[in-house]
Amino acid sequence: MTAAASRSKPATAKPAVERRAPAPPRGDETKEAPSNLAGWLRRYRLATGLTMFSFVFLHLTNHSFGLIGISFMEAAQPYMVGLFRLGWLSLVFATAASSHLALGFWSLYLRRNLRMPLWEAMQLSLGLLIPVFLTHHLVEVRISMLLYGTELNYSYVVWQFLDHPFQILRQISLLIIAWSHGCIGIHFWLRFRPWYPRGRIVLFAGALLMPVLALTGFLAASREVAALNVQPREHRAFVANANIPGPEGEELLRELEHALYYALAGTLALTLIARYIRDRPGKTLGQISVTYNDGRVVMTPPGPTVLEISRSADIPHASVCGGRSRCSTCRVRVGGNARLPPPTADEARILERFGAASDVRLACQIRPTTDISVFPLFQFPADNEHQRRFDTGKAPREKDIVVLFADLRDFTRISESKLPYDTVFLLNRYFAGMGRAVEQSGGYLDKFVGDGVMALFGLNKPLSEAGRDALRAAKAMSYQLAEINREFSDFGETLRIGIGLHAGPVITGDMGWGTALSLTAIGDTVNTASRVEELTKRFKVELVIADSLATLCGIPLDEFEPHTVAVRGRTSELTVRTVENAQTLPDF
Fold first, then answer.
1. Taking a C-beta distance cutoff of 8 angstroms, is the pair 6, 382 a contact?
2. How far is the C-alpha of 106 from the C-alpha of 302, rounded, in Å?
3. Where are the alpha helices (DSSP H) in 229-378?
4. Distances from the Cα of 503 to the Cαs of 403, 445, 563, in angstroms?
5. What is the pLDDT of residues 26-42, one digit of tens each?
């Protein structure tokens, strides 16, 4: 199921029962004390996940020290893995691990259906596999230490693995599964951070490099231990000093291991059975009704959000951000006698931003506990290909960038006196020159509109670099146009260009439909950049720069003449700087 909308299908064999009903009237919800339990659980799950990920990271780092030598691995062990065996840290880690696993089962229970994006299915599956592969290692190391005071060093553990190749495969699988699960979670936690796009490639390289270093370090340590050719007498002495449990202890540990496997399997079975009991067809006790504007009624247990209820019943429901309270496209008008808690801080911020009425709420945030009627305020087709892309991490996001607009002066008049094919030839040469200037300066060529150019700077760079890239592009465009005028001197016309630069927040991401889907940007900053470019006609200059480049990008522009102007479409005035010839710009 996509983040934007679910496909509309007949409601057959669904946990929700559908019937016809009149369209819901408008009305205000009755507010009750706010419930932030769901948000608190998400934050707690993130904290426990980060705690476990830090343990995995330090564990793999310790493994990678095997490239230096087995002695270095053992010397670093107390400062890496050993930290989590110290008093209160041991308790914190045990609590985090058990809580994270319990919250994983709870999340599985809460899901209205098991249809999910591939990344989410991978994260869920890997998370359930971790305890399966971890149990043996947990019993052999941690439980053995608690029961018998066993103290194992890397030399003995590696030696044991060499004697049991199957354990090596199990540990490698555990390493890959745990690391992949953590990396997926961190990616979807950080992907909306403004700095993440430019740091993603570094993090991705680290995510690939860490398990490779750990595996090669472990193999290097294995070769070193094998070369030592441990003698039976030395081995017996080590076993005595390390408090390795005897046959009876080993039997008890195996029984505990099997008991843990049974507990995991039983917990999973109970979770799935509880889901079935909750959603079994015909169940009505304790359910509430959600009535939609087209008369459809969905019966559901309390707990899920309205957006999740829509998805479970295959009712198309827009949600550009995927239900993460980062947009307002899932908004609904609430009617009936619904008793809903006041908006959380995140929801209130979104509602306030677009001046929502008192009966408008975000479907991804409200969890009805009584009968409710809703009227989705945005309707998207269920098969919209653009909407299906949002669960892949390509959702539009807000970001500060620099926008460049450029336009040829009097080109309509010039083209009237030229042959159409000559005009096409000239335009293509102009497009090539402008495109080359933008891309070589580090910008993204958004589009050509007629004889105009729109370019974006800072999609994956800090804003300070983006501003300098944009100024370099403007300078290069001026040089390119001068070259084009020399090449086409026989045309009898001199081409002139106007360039405008402005910086600020935009919404950037994949927008459009079908083959016209592409990366672009929208927002007031884009509109203002277009108006800034138009000012080149008023001031009869080649380049106009909004002062936002100085304030946001930290670029000194004091040497250029300032002007305070009224810009079409804006209530407030704008300070700009004019440059008669962009070729005179300094080398930024």
1. yes
2. 15
3. 232-241, 247-279, 306-312, 345-353
4. 6, 16, 17
5. 333 333 333 456 668 87
473, pLDDT greater than 80:
yes
Q: Which of 550, 546, 543, 581 is nearest to 563 (CA)?
A: 546
Helix, coil or strand: residue 308: helix
Q: Chain-wide mean pLDDT for the chain?
A: 80
Contact by Cβ (8 Å): 456, 402: yes
Phi, then psi, of 399 in degrees rounded to 5: -155, 145
- List, in order, residues 6 or more apart from 155 with CB less than 8 Å away: 70, 74, 225, 228
What residues have CB less than 8 Å from 183, skipping those under 6 apart?
A: 207
Distance CA 195, CA 461 (A): 8
**How far apart are alpha carbons 106 and 128 in whole angstroms?**
12
Please provide the size of the chain in residues.
588
Of 562, 578, 570, 576, which Cα lies nearest the Cα of 525? Answer: 570
Q: What share of the chain is helix, strand, coil (3-state, %, to 5)?
A: 55, 15, 30
Asked whether 325 and 350 are in contact (CB, 8 A), the reply is yes
Which pLDDT value is given to residue 407?
A: 93
The topology under which CATH files domain 396-584 is: Alpha-Beta Plaits (3.30.70)
DSSP class of 192 = T
Can you tell me which residue has the tokens 């029961």?
Answer: 147
Q: CATH code for 284-388?
A: 3.10.20.30
Distances 140 to 53, 101, 149, 263, 523 between C-alpha atoms, Å: 21, 20, 12, 18, 58
Please report the pLDDT score of residue 3 as a whole number: 37
Helices (H) and strands (E) in the chain, counts: 18, 15
Q: For residue range 102-157, what is the model confidence (pLDDT) as tens digits?
A: 988 888 887 766 777 777 788 888 888 998 888 887 887 778 877 877 776 666 67
Contacts of 204 (CB under 8 A, 6+ apart): none
Distances (CA, A) of 566 to 193, 531, 535, 543, 545: 34, 10, 10, 17, 14
Q: Which helix (H) or strand (E) holds 329?
A: none
Give the range with max mean pLDDT: 40-49, 55-64, 476-485: 476-485
The third-level CATH classification (topology) of the domain covering 37-276 is 3 helical TM bundles of succinate and fumarate reductases (1.20.1300)
Output phi, psi for 45, to 5 deg.
-65, -40
Question: Who's near 574: CB < 8 A, 6+ residues apart?
Answer: 528, 532, 546, 547, 564, 565, 566, 567
Q: Which two tokens stand for residue 534?
A: 């138009």
Contact 213, 220 (CB under 8 A): no
pLDDT tens digits, one per residue of 532-548: 999 999 999 999 999 88
Measuring CA to CA, how many Å separate 279 from each of 13, 113, 204, 227?
10, 10, 40, 60
d(CA 479, CA 441): 13
CA–CA distance, 434 with 405 (Å, rounded to integer): 11
Domain ranges of the chain: 37-276, 284-388, 396-584
**Single pTM value for the model:** 0.51
- Strands, DSSP E only, in 326-396? 331-335, 339-340, 360-362, 372-376
